[in-house]
Amino acid sequence: MTASGRPARNFASAGGAGASGNGPTGAPRGEATGGFDPAVRHRSPLYMAVVGTIAVLLFVLFMALGTWQVHRRAWKLDLIARVEQRVHAPAIPAPGPTRWPNVTAASDEYRHVTATGTFLDASQTLVQAVTDFGAGFWVLTPLRAADGSVVLVNRGFIRADDRGRVQPGNPVVGGTSTSVTGAANEATAATGATAATGATAATGAAAATDAAAATGAAAATGAVAATGAVAATNPASRAASTAGNPPVLAPPLTVTGLLRITEPRGAFLRHNKPDANQWYSRDIQAIAAARGLTHVAPYFIDAEGPPAPAGATGATPASGPTGVLPIPGLTVVRFHNSHLVYAITWYTLALMVAIAITLGLKKP
User: Fold this and answer.
1) 72 and 144 share a domain?
2) 178 phi and psi, to 5 degrees?
3) How many CB atoms lie within 10 A of CB 294?
4) CB-based burial of residue 5 (10 Å sphere; 0-12 exposed, 13-18 middle, 19+ buried)?
5) Which residues have a Cβ under 8 Å from the Cβ of 318 and sit 6 or more positions away?
6) How confident is the model at residue 335 (pLDDT cuts 50, 70, 90)?
C-alpha cells in the first residue's frame, strides 16, 4: 500500500512479462497480438503444397524439354547424314515438271543435280547476300530447257561493286572473240541474235549504252530489265557485228549444282519488293511472276561451277574470267547442332529442382 492507500503496481512483474515476450497469460506473442509469426506461416501446409506443386511442375517441364532436345539431336544427325550423302552423290537430272508437285525439302534439298538449257539473260535477278567475300548479290538466271520448262539457277555471287559487270550466262561466239571482258557492258541477246549498234534494242532482250553500267540502266523493247545488272558482250564482238558478222548464241549448256528449295517472303525483317527490284531472298514464285516467266520449277539450283557445253564430260573449270563471272560454288552446307548442350542444360535444371524438393521435404 502507498501512503495514499492505493495498491502499488508490480512493475517488475509487468516488465518481466514484456521482456519474456509473453502476454499476461503466458501465451505466445503471435496469439497475444492476434498477428502471424512468419516462421509459422512459411511452414503452413498450404504454403508447402503450393511450393511443392510449382517445383514438381518445373521438374516435369525441364525433363520434357531435355528429352525433346535429345530427339531433336537424333533428327538433326540423321538430316546431316542424308544431306552429306546427297551432296557427294553423282549428279542426276533435276526433277522435271511431272515431279515438281512432289519436290520437298525433306526428300530433295541439296540433291546433286544437272540441268540443260539456254539462259534467259534478260530475266536475270540479283538477290542481296552476304558471303565470305563481303556484301553483294546472288545472280539468279532462268535456264529454259528444250521442253519449255524453266529452272532458276544461282550462278554465283558478285560483290556490290561488280553488279554492272556480270557476264551473261550464254557465252557469245562468233565475230573476233569468244570471251567476255570489259567493264562497259553493252547488251544481251535473248532470242538468237543481237543487232549491236550503240544503243541496241532487241525483242525480249535488255540493251544499254556504253554509259549504262549503273543499277537499272537496262532499256529494252518488250523485255524485263535484269535486276540492277546489265549482261555484257565484248566490244570486239560488237565491232564484228557491225561488220556484218553478228555473234551467235552458244549451244545449250549443262549446269551442275545442288537443288535448293524456294525461300518465300524475304529475309528476317526484310521483305522482297518486286516493284522496286529489291530482293532479299530467293523466292522462286515471286521472281518468276515479276519477270513474266511461266512453267517454272518450284526450286532453284546452286551452281557449283560455270556451265559447260551440253554433252561435255570432265570437270568444269573452277572459275571464269577474272572480275566478270559470278563466283560459283559458295553453297554453305552447315547445320547448327547444339541440341546436346541444350539437353544437358535442361536436365541440369531438372536435377536442381529435384534436389530442392528433397531438401524441402526433409526440413522440419
Assistant:
1) no
2) -110, 0
3) 10
4) exposed
5) 305, 329
6) confident
For 37, the grid coordinates are 509469426
Q: Is residue 88 part of a domain?
A: no
At 57-99, the pLDDT tens digits run: 999 999 999 999 999 999 888 888 888 888 889 999 999 999 9
Residue 359, pLDDT score = 84
| CA 356 to each of CA 40, 51, 63, 352: distance values in angstroms, whole numbers, following the listed order | 20, 11, 15, 6
pLDDT of residue 264: 87
Instruction: Outline where 89-182 has alpha helix (H).
Output: 105-108
Exposed (0-12), middle (13-18) or buried (19+): which is 172, by Cβ within 10 Å? Answer: buried
CA distance 323 to 321: 6
Residues 167 and 302 in one domain: yes
Task: Evaluate whether residue 16 is within a structural domain.
Answer: no
Torsion angle (degrees, nearest 10) of CA 174, 180, 186, 187? 60
Count CB-CB contacts under 10 A for residue 202. 22
Same domain, 169 and 61: no
- Range with the lowest mean pLDDT among 42-51, 86-95, 284-293, 310-319? 310-319
Query: pLDDT tens-digit profile of 212-238?
Result: 333 333 333 333 333 333 333 343 433
Residue type, 337: N
Nearest CA to 225 out of 185, 180, 187 is that of 187
Q: Which residue shows C-alpha cell 526484310?
A: 270
E strand segments, 145-233: 150-159, 172-173
DSSP per position, 52-73: HHHHHHHHHHHHHHHHHHHHHH
Residue 283 placed within a domain? yes
**Is the residue at 179 inside a domain?**
yes
pLDDT in tens, 275-295: 999 999 999 999 999 999 999
- Quick one: cell of 324? 566478270
Closest CA to 232 of 326, 129, 316: 326
Task: Provide the residue range defining the domain that includes 229.
Answer: 111-309
Where do runs of H (alpha helix) occur along 109-244? 235-242
